[in-house]
Amino acid sequence: MKYPELHNFNEMFTPPEAMKYIMPFLDKSLIYWEACYGKGNMARELEKNNFTVVGNENIDCLSDQPKEWDFFITNPPFNGNKKFIKRAIELNKPFAFLIRLEHIGGVEAMRLLKDLDFKIIIPEKRINYITPKMLEGKKVGGSPFHSIWLTYKVELSKQINFM
Ligand SMILES: C[S@@+](CC[C@H](N)C(=O)[O-])C[C@H]1O[C@@H](n2cnc3c(N)ncnc32)[C@H](O)[C@@H]1O
Q1: How far is ligand 1, taken at its centre, from the CA of residue 118, in Å?
Q2: Are 119 and 5 in contact, with CB atoms under 8 Å apart?
Q3: What is the pLDDT, as a whole number, of residue 134?
Q4: Is residue 14 within 6 Å of ligand 1 at its C-beta?
Q5: Following CA atoms 43, 44, 46, 51 in sequence, which dihedral angle do they give, to the nearest 10 degrees?
Q6: What is the pLDDT along the chain (163 residues), one digit of tens a residue?
Q7: Which residues are CB-neighbours of 22 under 8 A, at least 6 positions away?
Q8: What one-character DSSP code corresponds to residue 130?
Q9: Residue boundaries of the structural domains of the chain
Q10: What distance in angstroms lies between residue 62's CA and the mean position of ligand 1's atoms?
């Protein structure tokens, strides 16, 4: 069976390996809002590494936000992810999105990003997300796509950083 048939692309939870590419560049004095909280996988990994995290699965991040936060971080649903990026840009605070590499292509992405001083991290290995099928103990193949961290106001030396 093909990968797209095996997975719901909106419920792909962040594995710890994805976080090691971004955490070295994050300031531990800030409050991180895990905006598309889901089951809390990304939040837990950040907390395990001594970051302060706010958020929960009942906050609709497109219309609401926690009382206090400094940095928008998330792995948004892959379908329609531009609306989440748009929201973060409008909130005008630093952000980091774990998204598919090809999602910075296309007209919608161009309109959002062309005037933004963003930076990206391209991990050398593909990120194998935790999927509902995986959690049911079913066998799944490796990810067929590359992921990146799309960041804004994160201290990175270059605009494109291969790691
Ligand atoms: C790809 S999953 C990632 C979950 C989590 N961020 C992680 O990294 O494991 C995307 C999650 O966004 C949630 N979601 C969808 N629309 C949302 C919204 N408007 N506000 C907050 N969360 C939303 C979905 O329920 C889903 O759990």
Answers
A1: 22
A2: no
A3: 86
A4: yes
A5: 90
A6: 454 555 566 788 999 999 999 999 999 999 999 999 999 999 999 999 999 999 999 999 999 999 999 999 999 998 889 999 999 999 999 999 999 999 999 999 999 999 999 999 999 999 999 988 888 888 888 999 999 999 999 999 999 999 9
A7: 73, 96, 98, 121, 149, 151, 154
A8: B
A9: 3-162
A10: 11
Is domain 3-162 annotated with CATH 3.20.20.140?
no
Give the C-alpha separation, 12 to 94, whole Å. 23
> What CA–CA distance (Å, rounded) separates 42 from 129?
11
Distance between CA atoms of residues 47 and 42, nearest Å = 9
CA distances from 27 to 24, 52, 72, 121, 152 (A): 8, 10, 13, 16, 13
d(CA 75, CA 98) in angstroms, rounded, equals 5
0.85 cut: is pTM over it?
Answer: yes
List all residues 6 or more positions away from 157 whose beta carbon is below 8 Å from its beta carbon: none
Q: Residue 27 C-alpha to ligand 1 middle, in angstroms? A: 23
80 pocket-lining for ligand 1 (C-beta < 6 Å): no
State if residue 11 touches ligand 1 by the CB under 6 angstroms criterion.
yes
